[in-house]
Structure formats: C-alpha cells, structure tokens
Structure prediction request, 592 residues.
Amino acid sequence: MNTWKNTRKNSRPTIAAGLLVAASFALTGCGTTAGATDAAPVGESVTLADGWVKAADSGMSAAFGRLTNEGAEDATVISATTAASTELELHETVANETGEMVMREVDGGFVVPAGGSRDLAPGGDHIMLMDLVEPLQAGDEVTFTLTFADGSTSEFTAPVKDYSGANENYVGGDDHGTGTDGTETDG
Amino acid sequence: MPAPDRRTGRSGSTRRQFLLGGAVAGVGAAAAVGGDALLRAVAAEPPPAPPHGESTVPFFGPHQAGVATDAQAHGLFVALDLLDGTDRPALTRMMRILTDDAARLTRGEPALADSEPELAAAPARLTVTFGVGPRFVGRARGRAPGWLGPLPAFGVDRLQPDFSDGDLLLQIAADDPLTVAHAARMLLKDTRSFATVRWRQQGFRRAHGTVRPGTTMRNLFGQVDGTVNPVPGTPDFDEVVWSTQGWLAGGTSVVVRRIGMDLDRWDQLDRSGREQSVGRYLGNGAPLTGSREDDEPDFEATTEIGFPVIPEFSHVRRARSDDPAERIFRRSYNYDDRPVGDGISLSGLIFVSYQADVDRQFVPIQRRLDRLDLLNEWTVPVGSAVFAIPPGCDEGGFVGETLLG
Prediction:
C-alpha cells in the first residue's frame, strides 16, 4: 500500500525522458543477446512498494523499499536509472575483513525470487545514487526505472525522507569522481 | 484499502488450536467422561478478541480523525514554528510526508523510514490531527479566517509563550502511551527540515477499559468535565463543529488552552463549596437541580430562602448561553507535571474545544467566564492557542491540499 503510487511524477520530466531513452538504447544493445524466450517480461510482474529515498544536499544518497515478484520466474534487477542522479549502483552491505560493515556494488544484480520479495533497507541492499544532480529535499518525489536481466523495465516513484541512518562506508574502487572511500551525505 | 486487524503471528486460530490441544489431553486423562461434549464446547468457543492495541481509526475521509473520535486515553499536543525558509512548496512537501506517516501509523504500519517499525504494530486507535496557524496559512498564500490568531486578551489569563500560539499543531492521541510517543517521534523527525518544536503538552484521561465507554471524563478537581457536548454523528454535532467555508470546508477550529488548577487551594474547599462553584454534584455530575448527569440544569429553581439553587456565579450557569450558536465541542485532557519549588503538584487541564467559528462560538462563552466564574478562583489559563483544522483527505491526497493544492 503506497499512497505515493498515484501521485504526480517529479518535476523533471524532460530530463527523465531523456535518460529513459538513453537507457532503452543501451538495453537494446545488450538485452537482445540473452535470447528471446516466451516468458512475459519480468518487469511486468515486479513492483517496488513502500519506496523512499534518503534526503541529501549533494553527493550520494540511497533508495529503499520492498521488491515483490509476482511472476513465475526469478527476476534479476541489473540496473537502475533516475533523473535525480547521473549514476546509480546496486549495492549490498557486507562485513569487510576487519568486520566493519561496508557497502559495495552487488555481483549479478538483485535477484527477486518468483512469488517472493526482496527488501532494500538501510544496512542491507539498496539502490545507490552516486552523484545527485540537485539536492534531494524531504517530500520531493523521485522516479526510478529498474532494468531487468531480460531487458524489461519497471518504474516506481518514491518520496524523499530525512533519515539519520544509512551511513555505512562505501568501498568503491572505480571512477566516479569522489575518490575512493566515502560516506553518504547526511540529509 | 483494507485495515489489517491482525498483524502479528499471534492469530486467534493458533491460540484456539492450543486450547483445543489442551482440552483433548485433558479428556484423555479424565477417561473420556463426557469427552465429546467437552470437545464440542471448547471447539465452539469463539476465538479470543484481538488485543485492543490492534484497533484502528480510519485516517482518510472528509474530516480529519481525532475530532469526532471518542477521545483516546492519551493525548499529545505539539505546536511547531515554521523555519524561515519553509515556503509554500516546502509546506506541500511537509504535509505530504506527514500525511503519509500518519496514514501508515494509524493503520498499524511503520512509516516509511521508520527506524523502530515494531513500535508501530499496536495503533490502539491512534489518530493524528493536523492544525495550522495564521503564519502557515499566510505562507500558503491562503485566506485566514478572521478568528485564526490569538484569542482576545482575557483578564484571567496569565499566558506563557511556552504554551501559546504556533504555526502547525500535531494532535496525536491513542489508547497507548508508547504508541503516542513513537508516532510523535516519527512525525517530528519528518518536520525537522521545516519547523521547530514550540511547545508540547501531554495529557491523559482514564486508561482504556477502566470505565464504561461513553463515560464523561473527570478532571483533577474530581469534577465530571464535558457533560454538555454535542454527540458525534448527529446533525447537531456537524453544525457545531464542521466548517463550510472555503478551504476549511469539512474542517474546523481547535482552541487549546492550558488551564492550571490550584489543587492546594482546592483542598481548602469543602464538598458543598466545590459543588456550588460548578453547579453540579461531584458524585455523578448531575446539576444541583437534578439527579442524573444528563438532566438539564434548572436555573430558575430557588432555595427556600430565595437564592438560585445553581448559583449565578457557578461555572455551569456562566458557561451556558441562550444563543444555541454559542456552543462548542470539548475534548480535553488532564495534565500532572513536575511541580516547581516546594510544591507537590503542577496539575491542570489541557482544555481542547472544536467549533466551526471561534469568534462566534467560543469567544462569547469565554468572555462570560472571564467576567464571572467562581471556578476562576482555583484555575488560571497559562497557555492559549488557536488552529484551523483542515478537512481530511482521500488516499493519495494530503491534509492541507485544499489550502496548498
């Protein structure tokens, strides 16, 4: 039950559309190699309920919620896009060699079992917004597009909320500008 | 949207199976004497009623909940001041978030980003009611009703800013104090970007189940308090309470006044003096001219030596108006706080009244009480605030949308 479901989309439709188009092109590029099956696109059977995004002035943030798969086959989220961030990653939270909880990009995406669900929550799996386009203020709405392994997509809109947690260290090795380790900006 | 009434693993059927299992074992031990009958009797027993904590009050609707709702045992009133930067778009963002929090919490679900989700599992008739002050309406670029603002100054008032005015009111009430505390914490975390807490008043009535439903509350003077009240669900109540004006249509107004009660001086007054000051018997709240609480007071009745039975200076006499428009709906709470100095009590009443029009309905009553009311000898208003209570909303909407939409 998500009272945000029927609400207006965020106020950046143009950028959103642009990103969506870009994403679809990319998907066409790699999605077709998977080989077509008769199964319905998983994007039609996967929803994200009770979604929310942590408020932040700049830098990184994260999105949470419960992914539910009503389909007969496992669904794998392989990527996410939103107009609110130039780059997104799918993250898991694990203990590093010193026992400290750190988050890192998940291998192989988020698998949502057929007929089951997967929680994205602070301290666990989440969708990481790597580089915010503008401040995310409490009460803003952000629309995300999830892309699945079969190339299908699913969209959800989630409100931004102030939240003091979700401050796990990020161990990112690659090239997203902010350097190596960092923590999320506190809203 | 279904309101879930069972949300824990403790379902009635499990409990029933357990009972049944025990019964079967007992039957075996008792050598099956009347075993069948016993088994049937136990099996037919209805499952135990779910705990009261699972009871919910619908959040969505034409009116906000928490006004016509039978008053819960615990009430918390929090007034906030808007931050300078909280402009009209920010008000919309805030009210959307708060509405979503309230809708979820009142049906026994955690709010989004609720860091203590288990505390949301027992709503216990939780209601969250939002009120707006003049600055809120101004920032929303709405038209404020003429009565929205501080009440006229009354001679009896000794108002403290710590308990007066405000831009946004949260009235949070439930039959469980932990539920109230959690809801307040959650809502206030979500107002932090928009507003600061100005004052906070915590009140109580009898605990749930202590007295029969519908029993008029008692205040800490021991008085039955709130007898003459319109009855929710009646046209009379609708007329007294609900506004029909502009963005406030379907809403109302609330007056929240903190009334200090001097229990030490009240102790010096004997029982008949106490009853004279109000005009009602302490035992059952009946007027001094009657025998039942709901008997109409007879202000014409006189004693053998010609004095009115219900004194002219009594609270009941002074509060009563010949003008039927001058009526309000009361929904007050007691408070009992930490005393100051060498006192042993700091107690009183969080007087709460709802009315469609404060100036037309509340102010005339308070003017009369201000001029003369024997009860003023033992009471002093130390806080006062007026808020407009916007109408309710449907799922997908938000409280305040008629002002901000």
Remarks:
- The domain at 13-32+48-164 of chain A is CATH 2.60.40.1890 (Immunoglobulin-like).
- Residues 1-36, 173-187 of chain A have pLDDT under 50 and may be disordered.
